[in-house]
């Protein structure tokens, strides 16, 4: 049996368990696809060719002995902000970084589930921006249009999955950094409840706004990777109750009250939902209504939630810059954000952290009237490569907020959200929509996403013009 690039995570795991294919053969083909696509897509910062093949051989021995694990022998990728033992964690920065001694908790759990880590994917510097470019590695490109960014900051993971290089990948989401690239590359992107997937060795990443999440072509695959990576280190400060996300896939959610929220939350600069994105999101709302859900326009009571985001985000940047081995090589915008973070790192940061409980009560009250929020993931389709790279800090912030004003409030709240593909602009660029819920609502959100997927079959559409990875597909 030959598995092509369309084989998903679950299908690959089943084929391995049945003995229809070996892990070594799969990893060899994966490495060939990565190599073939690196010039055109540039998804990977590090490719672990020798180590991954050794891990595949070990998985094959375990499979032959009757071992069974959820992802035994399956090749996956992780973002370059995650520690993989023996590899550097540069997080998009320039310079030569030393290899780390131990896996981060999320990577450790993927290995415990049997996954083979084939490499670390590109991300912008410290994950700050919705594009994946920089002097450390060049530009990561969107498989749907290599003139455009796949988004960020988990753009390398999204590009790798969208191009069919790996069936699924881990990313991280601090202001939409899983959901935005998922939207712009036609993928499922799950931002789980804070603490669902550990960020250890950092108990909190970016003052608690950043969580690890999953990218895949189907809801079932994104849920499977989420369940495999979920769990906590003994010292994690956030330990949500366990949920079975994979078990929710395909389960009827019943008739839900869905709020269609098209108004951007408060921002200090203008943000406008572009008509080509609005049309696609409204079409999804109509599809949900046709499925029997009660859908009406309503916006969560965000208030001035942005005032609580900025101190946490910039203080997190200041922490990272303070640890950076090569601060002189950092982007000027990074250094400026760190200076602001040091200014806001006292009383403003403490006030921002205290405000979270107030926001939980106020926005949580919205979920007494509604079960799920449907909102755009972004206000615009993906920009062209280079459009934001050389801007000033202020101009970058303006452009970023204009394109991506919808995702970050759920990072402040720490609650789950899922990007689902919403279709394409008239120019053929992917756009997405978010399903958002209250604390620990991943199973419900997955049920709704899977219901849409069963009707729309978005995973059957692949990027054309073809990525060079296709020539390497066996």
TrEMBL record:
Positions of transmembrane segments: none
A GO MF term: amidase activity
Database matches in SUPFAM superfamilies: Amidase signature (AS) enzymes
PROSITE patterns, per the entry: AMIDASES (PS00571)
Keywords: Hydrolase
EC assignment: 3.5.1.4
Top-level taxonomic group: Bacteria
Residue ranges annotated for the Amidase domain, each copy included: 26-445
Pfam families documented for this protein: Amidase
PANTHER family: GLUTAMYL-TRNA(GLN) AMIDOTRANSFERASE SUBUNIT A, MITOCHONDRIAL (PTHR11895:SF7), TRANSAMIDASE (PTHR11895)
NCBIfam families linked: PRK06061.1
The family this protein is said to belong to: Belongs to the amidase family.
The protein's name in its UniProt record: Amidase
Organism of this sequence: Streptomyces olindensis
Taxonomic lineage: Bacteria, Bacillati, Actinomycetota, Actinomycetes, Kitasatosporales
């Amino acid at each position: 049996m030959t598995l092509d690039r369309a084989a998903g995570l679950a299908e690959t795991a089943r084929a391995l368990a049945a003995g229809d294919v070996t892990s070594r053969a799969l990893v060899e083909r994966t490495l060939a696809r990565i190599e073939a696509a690196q010039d055109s897509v540039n998804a990977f910062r590090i490719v672990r060719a020798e180590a991954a093949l050794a891990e595949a051989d070990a998985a094959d021995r375990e499979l032959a002995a009757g071992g069974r694990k959820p992802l035994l022998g399956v090749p996956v990728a992780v973002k370059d902000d995650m520690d993989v033992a023996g590899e550097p964690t540069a997080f998009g920065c320039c310079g030569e970084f030393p290899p780390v001694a131990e896996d981060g908790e999320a990577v450790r759990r993927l290995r415990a589930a049997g996954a083979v880590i084939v490499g670390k994917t590109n991300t912008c510097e410290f994950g700050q921006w919705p594009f994946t470019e920089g002097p450390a590695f060049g530009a990561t490109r969107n498989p749907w249009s290599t003139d455009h960014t796949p988004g960020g900051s988990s753009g390398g993971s999204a590009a790798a999955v969208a191009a069919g290089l790996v069936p699924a990948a881990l990313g991280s989401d601090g202001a939409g950094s899983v959901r935005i690239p998922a939207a712009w590359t036609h993928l499922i992107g799950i931002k789980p409840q804070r603490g669902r997937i550990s960020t250890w060795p950092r108990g909190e990443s970016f003052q608690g706004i950043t969580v690890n999440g999953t990218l895949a072509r189907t809801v079932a695959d994104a849920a499977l990777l989420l369940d495999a990576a979920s769990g906590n280190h003994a010292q994690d400060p956030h330990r949500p109750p366990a949920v079975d996300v994979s078990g929710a896939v395909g389960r009827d959610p019943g008739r839900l009250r869905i709020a269609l929220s098209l108004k951007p939350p408060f921002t200090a600069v203008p943000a406008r939902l572009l008509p080509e994105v609005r049309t696609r999101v409204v079409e999804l709302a109509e599809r949900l209504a046709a499925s029997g859900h009660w859908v009406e326009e309503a916006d969560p009571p965000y208030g001035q939630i942005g005032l609580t985001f900025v101190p946490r985000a910039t203080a997190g940047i200041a922490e990272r810059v303070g640890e950076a081995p090569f601060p002189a090589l950092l982007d000027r915008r990074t250094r400026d954000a760190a200076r602001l973070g040091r200014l806001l790192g006292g009383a403003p940061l403490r006030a921002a952290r205290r405000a979270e409980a107030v926001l939980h009560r106020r926005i949580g009250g919205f979920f007494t009237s509604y079960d799920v929020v449907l909102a755009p993931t972004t206000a615009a389709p993906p920009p062209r490569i280079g459009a934001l790279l050389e801007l000033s800090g202020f101009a970058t912030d303006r452009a970023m907020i204009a394109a991506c004003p919808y995702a970050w409030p759920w990072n402040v709240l720490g609650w789950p959200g899922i990007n689902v593909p919403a279709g394409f602009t008239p120019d053929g660029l992917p756009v997405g929509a978010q399903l958002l819920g209250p604390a620990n609502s991943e199973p419900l959100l997955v049920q709704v996403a899977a219901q849409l997927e069963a009707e729309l079959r978005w995973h059957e559409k692949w990027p054309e013009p073809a990525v060079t990875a296709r020539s390497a597909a066996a």
